[in-house]
Amino acid sequence: MAPPTATEQLIRDYLNRLSVAARGLAPDDRRALLERIRGYIERKADVARRPSTMDVARVLARLGDPAALVEQERRRLVAQGKSVPLTSSAGPSRQRFLSRARGREQSRLRGAGFPWSALRDSGSSAPLPQNGGSGR
Fold first, then answer.
1. What is the pLDDT of residues 73-119, one digit of tens each?
2. The dihedral sign for the CA sequence 116, 135, 20, 48
3. Distance of alpha carbon 61 from alpha carbon 119, whole angstroms
4. Which residue pairs from 111-115 have beta carbons closer than 8 angstroms and sit at least 24 positions apart in sequence?
5. What are phi and psi of 127, to 5 degrees?
6. CB 41 within 8 Å of CB 55
7. Which pTM value belongs to this model?
8. Which of 67, 14, 61, 42 lies closest to 133, judged by CA?
9. Which 3-state string (H, E, C) describes 74-117?
10. 81: Cα within 13 Å, side-chain hemisphere
């Protein structure tokens, strides 16, 4: 089995961070969120045409911080009448670990010459895609 491409690895890393941030959601809600976001990324980055790393990085930058997506999802679920915990399951030690891991990942990518500055936009994040949306 061939190792993942840089593009595939970016998507995997983002979805992993999203999965960790979503640990406070019910398993079915967490799975649905991950599937919806994966589909959104694949549509926006046009994965079928083998997008560049920069194309995928732009899509991920527009989505924003995975923890913010989980909070948005939590609010959506509450609006639908579901009971959802108010706090993340990630305690202070896990948050410190994740923060350090994120820093190491960014340092590694910076060292590889990844052009993060090209991704900076107005600072707004894309709205969370909903089920059944075309994504385009």
1. 999 999 988 877 665 444 455 556 656 666 666 655 555 555 555 55
2. negative
3. 7
4. 114/53, 114/57, 115/54
5. -65, 150
6. no
7. 0.62
8. 42
9. HHHHHHCCCCCCCCCCCCHHHHHHHHHHHHHHHHHHHHCCCCHH
10. 0
